[in-house]
Amino acid sequence: MDDAPLKLVSQAGAQLCRLSRPNKDSLLKSLREVAESLVQIQHACSSSLEGLEKKKLAKKQAAALLPMKEFIVKREILRHADREVQLLVSVCVAELFRILAPETPFADKHLRDVFKLILGTFSELADTGSPYFGRRASVLEAVARCECCVVMLDVQCGDLVLELFKTFFSVVRAYHDKSVKKNMLHIMSRILNEEPSQRLADVILQNLIKEEEGPSQLAVYIIQKCDYELEPFVRGFFNSCFLNRDAVENDLKESYHVVLYEVYKCAPRMLLTVIPYLSEELRTDQVDVRVKAVNLLGKLLALRGDQFAREHHDLFTELKNRFSDKSVDVRRSALHCARAFYIANPCWKASEEILSAFEGRLLDLNDEVRAQAVVIICDLASSNLESFPPGLVVTATERLRDKKLSVRKKALARLMKLYQDYCIKCSQRLMAITNHFERIPTEVLMLCCIDSKAFRSQTTEHTLWEDLFPANLSAEERTRHWVHIVSLFTPLHWKVMASVLSKQNRLQTEMRTYLSLRKNEKENTSEVMQKNIKKSISKMSASFPDPSKAQECFYILNQLKDCNVFSTLELLLEDLTIDDLQMKRKEFLKLVGDKHPQLDFLQLLSLKCSFSIFNSEIIRCVLVHLSSEGLEIEQKKASAKLILAVVSIFPSLLRGSETEVQMLLEDDTLAGELVEVLAKAGSHIFVEFSDFDAFLRRQCIEGTRVVSKHAVSAIASMAGTSEQVILSQLCEELVNSLRCGWKTSTVLQSLGCIAQHSLSTFEIHGEEIRSYIFNIIFKLSQSDGPACSEERLNCSDCCQLKIFGLKTLVKSFLPHQGSHFKWAIDKMLAVLLKMLQTGDTSDGVFTCENDKLSIRLAAAKSILMLSNRWDLHISPKIFQLTTLMAKDSSPVVRKSFLHKTHKLLKKHAIPVRYACAFALAAHDPCEDLRDASSKYMGDIINDYVRDSQFNQKSAGQRETFTGDPAYMVVYLIYILAHDDSFPLEECQDERVYAQFCSPLFWVIQELTRGSHVKDRVDVANGNISRLLCVFYAIKKAEDAIDPQGTPKLRILADIGILMVKSLQHNALPVELTQGPVLLPSSLYKLSPVDLKYVSGSSDRQDFLNRLIPIQKSGNFMPAGHSNKRSRDLQEDKPRSCGTENNALVVVSLPLQSLIAPETQGIVAADVSLGQMLEYALSPDLESEGLCSNHTATEIQLGCASTSCNPISSTDSATVSPSMLQPEALNQKSDGYVQSLEDTCVSTYLFLIFQVVG
Fold first, then answer.
1. Contact (Cβ atoms closer than 8 angstroms) between residue 1224 and residue 1218
2. CA 373 to CA 286: how far, in whole Å?
């Protein structure tokens, strides 16, 4: 063994001791030499000497090192100010501890200062870039090797031990060398092995939850290494927190859940007796504690998953109970924790139980919880698409119909992301197409049915294109999904799809018009051109979620001078492939510029203008898909229906797929759909008609009635110039089939359709066809028929054939073009009148009661169809019988008739007077029909109120309001007056009158107080004005058919006036409608006798005053009949006629006493009859059916002042607004109606007739 280092240390120590004040440089030099020498000295025990020799060596080393030890403790060197000196001394001290171990190199009184010096060195270990870091690390290593830190415990330096732990945690870094961390760990664990304490445990736990990786990692190491030593202290801390947290004097008590989780991660065994305490916290009344406990338990489950659930089953069960906790915060925390658990353990049994709890939260009462549940379910499904429970995806999809907008928005965004992930997986063939994911687009479509601006069909269209499929998904892949999507469609889905496509088509059409106008603007800058452009912009703006904002953006766009922008926009309107469309859109937006203030609007515009949802590429792929083998029949039908839905609105998209269409002709399962596609788009494709001729002819004869109808339309659209020849040949074949009795129902349908497309072709065989229908079909007899169910009329086969024959006759009077009829319409109407009256088609033919119902219904519907063209020929009797079908004894008949009437009124295909049917059914015994009547009437009010004023003004006509729903009371009063159930003259019961007049009251309610006009005071007041004018006009007229019915008309008018007054619930003045009041002369005429005006009867007025509150209360209704409208009116408590305090007393009054007194006489001096004036009826008035039987009556209210000039035969009847607005109208008093009556009495009445045709 070399003694040179030992001698050097001895000499240097002696030399340093002799120096009283060594300078810094010499001191540093000496200390460096000593430090280097001490490192070279081995411990005696590590030498190869034997026992006695080792002892001698140890004594020798101790003696040699004594001078240095004395220098360190005697010269205050331990407190030297220089940091380098301190470091070198620390090195020396550490080496002395190593060499002299197990003996302590210094006396106990000096050890505190020695250890402080070492701790000071350790505090600099964080600076790894320092040139002294190596020496500091060597001190750490020496201390760890000799375990001298244990000495601190022997000399009562517990505070220094605590400081040592804190120092290590403060300086340790994640980038430290492993040896540094290992030495720290060794020192700390050695101390804990000797004397663990609560204070040391607290320091470790505090650093365990730090975000810095170094301290937390070191804490994990020490807990794992000394878990047995730390366990009592850690458990004690947690037990105190669980049992009495307020008594714990430790900052960690506020975050003990976090600490517990971190401890459990590294030493779960330590907490076996602690974890069960969580069950108490899960049930505590403190919400914040439950939230923290739930969060902790969720993390523990995510950490150890199914194993934890098995070991702590009670806790797992309690966690599931927290999904239904009364606190929203707790429920939301439970959802978050369950998400982490499932992602970590997707295939474990406990995960299934967690997912079942999710389903309940989708229906949570709190919208935030529902939204969060949807988001988490979508995230979980995306992480495990193949095995995620399909039922849960379907249930989450239903949140798209949530009542809260915020939930619907979040659900839409996350479900779209989920569906895109699913599409990518399918395109990679990693999973098959499945129903539960394909239901997502079907539910997105249904958002159009929600009454919300955020989810109108305009927004849905944007979602279907931008968010449904990934942008790079091919047309073939999109087709695969669309085929499966539409196979899940219900009729409502198809309706919504048609609505979305129709609005897109309207925007594209209007955009083409706008671009065309813009091109011509340079050549024509007139006001008309600018007006047309504004009109076009207004129409296009209606296709956007915010029309007003869109209109502003359109005006800004219109100011652009760059023609390339509009040229590119025009290209977007063409049928482009998916790739070309994306390229053109990018080109358009690039021309606009990224910084354009309307960039968002222009992005949406470029999307809407393009064939964004479907294009010819998609249609061709669907047709190819239909030709593939192994396709299920349901998917075939759905795919064909998809093509039909698209080409019905965009027929040009079928162009280019002619070959694929022709390949499907041999597939009989698709014959019906294919024929309809050809009927819709046949004129837009380029084919040889001969390739389709045989197929279409066969369908006209052998197909179903629906298919044959479309087959005739397809022939007419595809035959081109050969249409007449081909239809003539087809008609000959059909007549031959009719003679043979082959497929009679289909043949009749085809013949009727031919009559509509080519009346001249039909009339070649018209007499033979009519003869066959009248003499053979109509005379078929059947002794009995099937019973009528509550849902449908099960008429006999021969009855069905009669109805089919009737439809053929009716269609022959409704050609698309031409008007040369060989058979008079009056004969047809006579046949229908007989059917309406008797239900029979021919005399002497027995017809069962069920068949009579079906025939009467078919006749009524035929009248509706004919009224579109032949309304002037329909007599009052036929109109009355037709409308009264709404009160038929069969609920099936009533339902079918009301539905047909509504459908035609919505299309404006029949006059508005047929809406009387809804009033007659308003108090139907069947609640569904009552609700349907209200809905149907609301639709008509909304449509006609919106359109009638514009149509009349744009035509430059007088405002006769004959197209307004309010005008229907003209016909309703007449129907009621001629009803056989009109109360007898000697009737003494107001309830009888109230029940009888309920249709009139219902109509007035709908027009003035209904939900459709509830928030539109102007519309309600306009209807009040029109109703009053009609009622006063009727009071001045007589029954044109039965003079005995005049008193009934007038009492109904009086009741109507009082009804209007009782429902007028605002104090705003009502202006009488300006212009004439026209009454149909087929129903009304002017009285030929001038009558004296007499004062009113108090008895009559009392009777009418008692009638109104009964009507409003609904007390006349049959037992068990719920009248919701009457209840609403009672709750509203509107202004009445001063009858609130009158008792409902039954009195006996003759009928004549109920007639308004002013109608019994007119002051001769104030009234004169004008001469017969010629008045040319406009086409609109004819089409509205105002002049049945070729004549019309006009009762006009004019000025009665003596200053007015007489009206001659050449004068026009004009009245200023002031003449029709008496001051009494502005007064809120019971004399309102009487004042109005006085005004109307002091007017001219004159009758105008004009023979039409």
1. no
2. 24
Position 454 pLDDT exceeds 80: no
3-state secondary structure of 1230: coil
- Name the one residue in this structure whose structure tokens are 């004969």: 827
Taking the C-alpha atoms of residue 754 and residue 641, their distance in angstroms, rounded to an integer, is 25
For 85-115, b/e burial (b = at least 16 CB within 10 A) is ebbbbbbbbbbbbbbbbeebbbeeebbbbbb
Q: 657: which DSSP letter?
A: -
For 52, how many CA atoms within 13 A lie in the half-sphere containing its CB?
0
The Cα–Cα gap between 339 and 299 comes to 10
Question: What's the 3-state SS for 1096-1148?
Answer: CCHHHHHHHHHHHHHHHHCCCCCCCCCCHHHHHHHHHCCCCCCCCCCCCCCCC
**Predicted pLDDT of residue 710:** 94
Class of residue 1134 by CB neighbours under 10 A (exposed 0-12, middle 13-18, buried 19+): middle
| Residue 749 in tokens | 């349908």
Determine if residue 151 is left, alpha or beta; phi over 0 gives left, psi from -120 to 50 gives alpha, anything else beta.
alpha
**Residues 192, 195, 198, 202, Cα dihedral to 10°:** -30
Spatial distance between the Cα atoms of 780 and 837, rounded to a whole number of angstroms? 19
> What pLDDT, on a 0 to 100 scale, did the predictor assign at position 965?
85
Highest mean pLDDT (candidates 50-54, 477-481, 846-850): 477-481
- Sorting pLDDT into bands at 50, 70 and 90, what band is 93? confident
Query: Which residue do the tokens 């000495």 mark?
Result: 151
Q: How confident is the model at residue 79 (pLDDT cuts 50, 70, 90)?
A: confident
What's the token pair of residue 1168?
A: 């004169």
Mean pLDDT of 822-828: 82
What does the DSSP assignment read for 157-172? -HHHHHHHHHHHHHH-
Please report how the helices 227-244 and 198-208 are oriented relative to each other, as an axis angle in degrees rounded to 10: 80
Contact 841, 892 (CB under 8 A): no
d(CA 940, CA 946): 10
Residue-wise pLDDT for 1184-1223, tens only, equals 333 333 344 444 443 333 333 332 322 323 323 333 333 3
The span from the CA of 693 to the CA of 851, in Å, is 38
Question: Count of residues for the chain?
Answer: 1253
What's CA 208's distance to the chain center, in Å?
49
CB 493 within 8 A of CB 446: yes
Alpha-carbon separation of residue 927 from 218, 628, 895, 914, 999 (angstroms): 76, 49, 11, 21, 16
Whether the predicted pLDDT of 882 surpasses 90? yes
Q: CA torsion angle for 278, 279, 280, 281 (degrees, to 10)? A: 50
Q: Look at residue 518 in the predicted model and tell me its pLDDT.
A: 86
Nearest residue to 679 via CA among 716, 643, 706, 637: 716
Look at residue 1138 in the predicted model and tell me its pLDDT.
33
Q: What is the DSSP letter of 463?
A: I
Q: What is the mean predicted confidence (pLDDT) over 540-555?
A: 88
Position 1240 scores a pLDDT of: 32
Crossing angle of helices 671-681 and 705-718, in 10° steps, is: 40
CA atoms within a 13 Å half-sphere pointing along the CA-CB vector of 982: 18
Q: How far from 839 is each of 527, 880, 976, CA to CA, in Å?
A: 60, 16, 23
The two structure tokens encoding residue 676: 């309809």
User: 1193: which strand partners?
Assistant: 1079
pLDDT at 434: 92
| 793, 850 contact by CB (below 8 A) | yes
> For residue 1014, which of 1134, 865, 839, 910 has the smallest C-alpha distance?
1134
Q: Is 1084 helix (H, G, I), strand (E, B) or coil?
A: strand
Closest CA to 1028 of 988, 995, 1059, 1068: 1059
- Residue type, position 452, single letter: S
